[in-house]
Structures are given as C-alpha cells and as structure tokens.
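Lab channel / #folding
Pinned by the channel admin:
"Please post every new chain as: sequence first, then the structure tokens as a reply. Keep commentary short and put observations after the output so the thread stays searchable."

First post following the new format, from NK:
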Amino acid sequence: MGYVLTNGKYYIRISPTGATEKTLDIREARIYLTTDKAKERLQKALGKTRGYYILDMETDSKYQFSHGRIKFPRETRELIYRSADGRCALCGRKLQIDDMTLDHITPLSMGGNDTLDNIQCACKACNQFKSNILPDDFMNRITEIFMYQTRKRLGDGVKWRLLQTLIK
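Reply from TO:
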C-alpha cells in the first residue's frame, strides 16, 4: 500500500535537495507508506500543497486534510463501522452509520496518529466525553463516576459494601 499527494492533476515529488516540487508524472511522485507521513509533508509545505489531498494508490481513496486531521473517505468509515458491528466502542450502543464519529484511541494530542489501528467507532456523546483522554485514564474516570453515583444512590449500607467487594 502506498500514498501520494495530488490535487488531481499534479503530484508532489521531493527533489534531491529535499524541496517539495510538482510533477505531472505519478511515477515521479513521492510514495508514502502511511497517511501520517503524507500528512507531515502536507504540513511541512503548506504553501506548495494547498489544495492537495492524500491518495491511496491501491484503492483510489482520497484522504482530505483539514485542521490537523485526515478526513477519512466514506469507504473507510464504512469499513470501521462494519468492523465495530455498528456499535460504539466505548458504550456499546448500536449506531446508524451517519451518527458514527471516529475516535482516536490514543488522541492526536497525546501522540496518537491518524492510522486505522488508532481509530474506533464511537457515538458523538462518548467521543465528546472521552475527548483527549488516554484509554486507561478514560476507563478510570468512568469507574470513578460509576462508583461515586452508585454510592450516592445506595448510601454506606450493606448493598454498597457488597458491590464494592464484587467490583474489587
């Protein structure tokens, strides 16, 4: 699998000096192994790559780039949706594909990347709640909320102590 940068007419190549250049010949285009590497080049040469997108040479899928993120094509979103059986990876709710959001398992702000192995299907509410929290921190936060709310509801009686014992 390989990715190139194109605007539909020109492709981006890298000169021997490392400069970003345009070419009409796809055979001269720089091939990137990941969308992250292609995205880095887009960010490095914003002036020269304005209007360009990442093209998957195997599937002809177009990955748009905006606000520091890759916008995954419909086909990729459908693949993620099907692999999650149409369920939010965080709460398990069944979703319609148009209601699905893509969640970065390890957030971009925490060193995650825009690769498929770091993307999961999520409902909007869960994705917003998780925000830029690492998976373990997210689970700890959910557990804290559950325990606090349960204790508030049950009080400090036998039921609460029993539940605490079962959870531990």
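NK: The chain has a mean pLDDT of 89.
TO: also worth noting, The chain has three domains: 1-71, 72-133, 143-168.
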